Amino acid sequence: MGQPEAIVVDDPAELTSDWLTDALNSGGHELVVSSVDAERIGTGQMGATYRLHLTYEGDAGPSTLVAKLGAGDAATRTMVAPGYRAEVGFYTEIAPGLEVRTPRCWYGAIVPDGANFTLLLDDVRDALPGVQADGCSVAQARAAIANLVELHVPRWGDPALHDFEFLMQPDQAMADLMGQATVSATEEFVGRYAAQLGEECVATLREVAPHVAAWQVTRLDPFTVIHGDYRLDNLLFSPAEAIAVDWQTAAVGPPLRDVAYFLGTCVDPEQRRATEKDLVAEYHEAIVARGVSDYDLDRCWDDYRLGHLQAPMITTLGCIYATGERSDRSDAMFLAMARRSSEAIRDLRSLELL
After folding, report:
1. What are phi and psi of 158, to 5 degrees?
2. Were 308 and a residue from 33, 48, 233, 260 both cysteine, which residue would form a disulfide, CB within 3.0 to 4.6 Å?
3. pLDDT tens for each residue of 34-89
4. pLDDT reading at 224 higher than 70
5. Which of 119, 130, 80 is nearest to 322 (CA)?
6. CB proximity list for 257: less than 8 A, separation 6 or greater
7. What is the mean pLDDT of residues 321-340?
8. What's the rounded Cα separation, in Å, for the pair 161 and 89?
9. CA angle 261, 266, 269 (to 5 degrees)
10. Which residues neighbour 95 within 8 Å (Cβ) at sequence distance 6 or greater?
11. HEC string of the chain?
């Protein structure tokens, strides 16, 4: 669909029938909206999300859509603008060429400085959201990994991905910056949660943090488009499939990082130990069947082991630099991610691969 130089809105009151008609038509949908009622949904920390109840003149379109808008003060928007660009760019320029299950984008636009955007997406309200602290079943894990195959394979090793400026690209300068931030965030995270984490988890988090900079630029081949924060709070489940949302962390990177991050943060450690070799083998079999070559299962497994180092970085940075208010739910989420991922790193001896 491309990113149109079209209008964005900054307030749900601006989501009028005329505005929606113009937006949908600019996206190639010949629809006339006659009425709209917006209700706030979700508690997103990087934007504001609304469910739009719509009626039409003439041909009928979807009865509901989800609108995502920018939110926060100017300083906050400047900080999260790369995430806004990544999500709008993913939905409008990359998702149409993939088979990954994600909401259909009806319209997307962003202002030049990235501080404000508007997306109109399918409302998948019948699917059940994952809950990070609760974990997931093996069946849900299998569905989530199957969806990663559809994300990763179509752009596997595609050098054109490096031309998308909105996708985070690994480089030494960014790795050093993220590494320094992770060391600092880890100490603050440990200071906040040490009693709940336990000694082994604290030791693992502290051991991993100084290696994050080196890890970020290690084993970068193969590469593809990755989600970057592929976990239960960013997934919806219908009976037979997983649907991925929240693409603010879309990036170019090693695909097994998505697989490891999901299994390491979302699956109970005992279940993970019992199933991860089979699940990684199923992922490998699926990508080979789709045409990926020169990537054997042993290499895939080692990339999976190394990929687990992503979770402590995302967990500590996400916790300490979150813009939303701290709550019991957010504490439970971050604690579950830290405990599970630390066990995975110890089980799989991930640091030995650096």
Report:
1. -80, 110
2. 260
3. 999 999 987 655 678 999 999 999 988 999 999 999 888 888 888 889 999 999 99
4. yes
5. 80
6. 226, 228, 307, 310
7. 89
8. 12
9. 100
10. 102, 105
11. CCCCCCCCCCCHHHCCHHHHHHHHHHCCCCCEEEEEEEEEECCCCCCEEEEEEEEEECCCCCCEEEEEECCCCHHHHHHHHHHHHHHHHHHHHHHHHCCCCCCCEEEEEECCCCCCEEEEEECCCCCEECCHHHCCCHHHHHHHHHHHHHHHHHHCCCHHHHHCCCCECCCHHHHHHHHHHHHHHHHHHHHHHHHHHCHHHHHHHHHHHHHHHHHHCCCCCCCEEECCCCCHHHEEEECCEEEECCCCCCEEECCHHHHHHHHHHHCCHHHHHHHHHHHHHHHHHHHHHCCCCCCCHHHHHHHHHHHCCHHHHHHHHHHHCCCCCCCHHHHHHHHHHHHHHHHHHHHHCHHHHC
pLDDT at 5 over 60: no
- Please name the residue that has the structure tokens 């592929």: 230
What Cα–Cα distance (Å) separates residue 11 from each residue in 23, 118, 324, 354?
A: 15, 10, 19, 47
Structure tokens at 152: 């990763």
